[in-house]
Amino acid sequence: MRPSLKLTKMGWIALTYFVLSLFAFIYLSPFIRSFVASFMTWEQASKYPPEWIPNPFTLENYMKLFRLELFPRWIFNTALYAGLIVVGNIVFSSMAGYAFARLKFPGRDALFSALLALLMIPIFVTLVPNYIIIYRLGLIDNIVGLALLSLANVPSTFLMRQYFLSLPQEVFDAARIDGCGPIKSFFYIGLPLAKPALGAVAVYQFLGAWNAFLGPLVFLRSPENFTLPVGLSFAFQRSMWTEYTPIIAGSLVAAAPTIVLFIALNKYLIKGIVVQAGKG
Amino acid sequence: MFKQVKGDENMARVFLKNVVKKFGKVVAVNNVTLEVKDKEFMVLLGPSGCGKSTTLRLIAGLETPDEGEIWIGNRLVNEIDPTKRNVAMVFQSYALYPHMTVYRNIEFPLKMARVPKEERRRKVIEVARFLGIEDLLNRYPKQLSGGQQQRVALARAIVREPEVFLLDEPLSNLDAKLRVKMRFELRRLLHDELQTTTIYVTHDQVEAMTMADRIAVMNAGKIMQVGSPIDVFEKPANIFVAGFIGVPPMNFFEGTLIEKQNNLLLDLGSILFRIPKTYYSTLHPHVGSEIVMGIRPQDIKVALEPQEGSYEGKIVGYEPLGTETYIHFTINGIKEYVAVIPRGMRISLKQKVYWKPNLQKLYFFRKSTGEAIY
C-alpha cells in the first residue's frame, strides 16, 4: 500500500474512533454522573456547575437504601412481576406468532393488522379501561393482577411471527408429512427452532418489566406490594422536596441485574432487531 | 436388508383425475389426469413454474385441489390429511430438522406414529446401515455435507416404509459429480431394491431420461405427454416436448408446405427443402399450410465441402465439450441452428459449412397447434 493511502486510511480510522467515542460519552455521561453522584452528599450533588469527584466520599446513600425495611420485598416484587411477564410472553406470544406465521385461518391477516394498529394507541388511553377491568376482577394492589395486563403484547407477537416466517417452509412441510399436526409442529419443530427469538422476547420483556414505573404506580397501593422503581420514589419523596441521591443509588442497584442481563444476552437483543427488520 | 413387503390388496397406484389447482388467478395445475402404476418410477419433468412441484404437493396433501380426485391405492385422499396418506417426501433442501441429530431426524416420523421406542431404535439403525450413514447418527445436519444430508433425508423417508415416495428435485443442490452418482444410486435404491411407487420431480431431462420408467412432461400446468424415456425422445407429441427433451434442443424450421410435381417441399424462405417420399402420405393433407420441421442436432451431418443434398451455413459459434462439439450456424444469416460434430473436426468462426440432415429422422408439427404430424 502506498504511504499516502495508508495515512488516509489511518485518518479515517482515527476520525471514526473519535466520533464513536464522543457519542459513547454523550450516552454514558448520565450513567457516569449517576454513579459518581451516588457517592456524594445531596449538597454536593445538587451544585451548579456539577462536580464530578465525590468530596466527601460517602456511602450514606447506599446505607439509607439498605436500612429500608421494604427494600428486599420490593426486589422480590419486581422479580416476581418481571418473571410472570417473561413467562407469559414466551408462552402466549410464541403461540400467537406461530399462528399468525404458519397457520391458515380466515381473517388471519386482518386480525394481525388490527393487532399492529394497537401499537398506535398510547398507553394512557388504555390505562383507565384497564384499571376498571382489574378493579372489577378485584386485583388492584396485586402483582399478579398488574402482570396480567402484560402477559402478551404486540411487539413480542410481532417478533415471534417474523421469526417463524424466517424459518424455511419446507421444514414444516416435512414435519406435516412425518405426522405432525399444527400443535405437534409447534412444540417439536417451531418452538425448539425459535430459541433465539424467545431469548430476545425474554430479554426485552424483562428489561421493560424491571424498569416499569407507570403501571405499578397506578395499580399498586400498599408499600409492601410496590416494585423497586415505585418503592424508591415512595421512600425518598418528601412533601416539599425529593432526596435524589438515595434514589440514584437505588436506581443503580436496581439496574444491576439488567446490566448483567444485557452483557450476557445482548446477542439475543441484536437477533431480535434483525428478525423484526426481516421479511414482513 | 431393509425391504418393503406389500400385499396385492395394498397396491400403491397413484391416480390423478382432472385435478385443478389455482393460486388466485394463476392456474398452477390445469386439469391433470395421470396414472402412476404400482412400483413405477414416474418422473414429472418440466421447466420452472410448470406445476410439477404443485402436483407433487397435491399428492402429498400439502395443497388441496380445487377440482378433481386424487387416489392413492384404493383410497380417495382429497380430504385425507398428509399425516395419514402414508407417503414420504424428500425435499429439494432436504428439510432436515436442524435442532435434531441424524438419529432423531430419522426417528421422528416413527415417534409421531407412536412406534415403541425399541422398535424405533431397531429401524433407525437398520435404515442407517442400509444407507451407509451409521457413523453419522450423533451428528447434527449442519455438520454434514450435501450428499450426507441427502442420505439422511432419504433415510427419514424410507424408515416409515411408505406406500409412495415423493421426491422434489432432490439432486439439484448437489455438485455435478455427486449428482451423477446419486442419480444412479437413487434409482437402484427406490426402484430396484425397495420396489416402491416413486414420483420424482425434476427440471433436468438427463435425470428424467436415466431414472424414469415413464416420464410425464409438463408445461403451463398441463401434461404434454406421458411415456417411456425413449418414447418421449423418439416420438414427441408436440413441439414443446420435442424442444424440451434432448441436449442440445431440437432445431425447428418453420415454413409452408408446397407440392411440385408430386414432390413435397418446405419453403423456408431462403431455401426450398425437399422432403423425402417416406413422409408423403402423412404430410400431403397439410399442403398449403404452415408447418414446423424438427431436426435433432445429432441428426445433422456437417461437412466442410459441399455434398449431395447438403445446404450451406455459416458458423457463428461453437462449444467444444471434449467428446464432441456443438456448432451454432445460420442459413443466409437468419435464424440460428445447432449441430453436433465429432471431435477432431477443425472449424473456425465465420467458416462456411455444408449441413445435411438424416432424412429418416425428421419430425413435423402443425404450426398452429404445435401437435406432431409425424
Quaternary organization: heterodimer
- What is the end-to-end distance of chain B? 48 Å
The strands making up the biggest β-sheet of chain B line up spatially as 6-7-8-3-9-10
N-to-C SSE series of chain A? HHHHHHHHHHHHHH
Might you state the CATH topology name of the domain at 251-366 in chain B?
A: OB fold (Dihydrolipoamide Acetyltransferase, E2P)
Structural class per helix/strand content of chain B?
Answer: alpha+beta
The CATH architecture of the largest domain in chain A can be given as Orthogonal Bundle
Strand content of chain B: 25-35%
CATH topology of the largest domain in chain A: MetI-like fold
Number of strands of chain B: 20
CATH superfamily of the domain at 251-366 in chain B: Nucleic acid-binding proteins
**What's the CATH first level of the domain at 251-366 in chain B?**
Mainly Beta
Tell me the strand percentage band of chain A. under 5%
Most residues in contact, chain pair and counts: A-B, 17 and 24 residues
CATH class identity of the largest domain in chain A: Mainly Alpha
Mean pLDDT of chain A: 88
If you had to describe this structure to a student in words, what would you say it looks like?
The complex is a heterodimer of chains A (280) and B (374). Chain A is mostly helical. Chain A is built from 14 helices and no strands. Chain A folds into two domains: 27 residues; 214 residues, MetI-like (MetI-like fold), CATH 1.10.3720. Chain B has a domain of 116 residues: OB fold (Dihydrolipoamide Acetyltransferase, E2P) (Beta Barrel), CATH 2.40.50. Chain B is built from nine helices and 20 strands. In chain B, the strands form four sheets. Chain B has a six-stranded mixed sheet with strand order 6-7-8-3-9-10, sandwiched between helices. In chain B, α3 packs across α4. Chain B starts with 13 loop residues before the first strand and ends in an 8-residue tail after the last strand. Classes of the chains: A mainly alpha (280), B alpha+beta (374). At the A-B interface, α9 and α10 of A face β6 and α2 of B.
